[in-house]
Amino acid sequence: MQVRSLFLLLVLILVAATAEAGKNKKEKTKKDGSKCEDWRWGPCVPNSKDCGLGFREGTCKGESKKLKCKIPCNWKKKFGADCKYKFESWGGCSAQTGLKTRSGILKKALYNAQCEETVYVTKPCSSKIKSKSKAKKGKGKD
């Protein structure tokens, strides 16, 4: 009988703790107090140089906010960090220009960014042929 009452008490404590934790989580999501839903966000502006941590400013009916953001250091500056594209495979090497070309179709525009639907990128043709198999260092030597 005592084991059953102890078990019941434990379950009640657990339910009360879970309910309190859920209540705190809901309060945290509404901590800014803004009821505006039509936010317009600007581009992510890095704190220094052209990549890394930065801030994005947003406005909505006279209110303004700043959000932390991050621009990866390998992003395509031409397209912007908020435009995500799905790229096809590289085309063949053009003998006239010495360049390979491929196109990308817009997959997602983050924070209402103005993005081009299709973009084209080029890179120089490789003059040397890469080998598929690479020897692993330190393996197989006795």
Report on the architecture of this protein.
The chain starts with a helix and ends in an 18-residue tail after the last strand. A hairpin with a 2-residue loop joins strand 3 (52-60) and strand 4 (63-71). It is an alpha+beta fold. Residues 24-31 have low confidence and may be disordered. The strands form two sheets. Strands 1, 2, 3 and 4 form a four-stranded antiparallel β-sheet that branches. The protein contains one helix and seven strands. The chain has one helix at residues 2-29, and strands at 40-41, 45-46, 52-60, 63-71, 83-87, 99-109, 118-124. The relative contact order is 0.11.
Number of helices: 1
Order of helices and strands: HEEEEEEE
Radius of gyration: 27 Å
Helical percent range? Answer: 10-25%
> How far is it from the N-terminal to the C-terminal residue, by CA?
70 Å
Query: What's the overall geometry?
Result: elongated
Q: Report on the biggest sheet.
A: 4 strands, antiparallel
Number of strands: 7
Given helix and strand content, the structural type is alpha+beta
Q: Report the sheet-strand fraction.
A: 25-35%
Low-confidence stretches: 24-31
What's the rounded overall pLDDT mean?
A: 78
Keywords, separated by commas or semicolons:
7 strands, four-stranded antiparallel sheet, 142 residues, 1 helix, alpha+beta
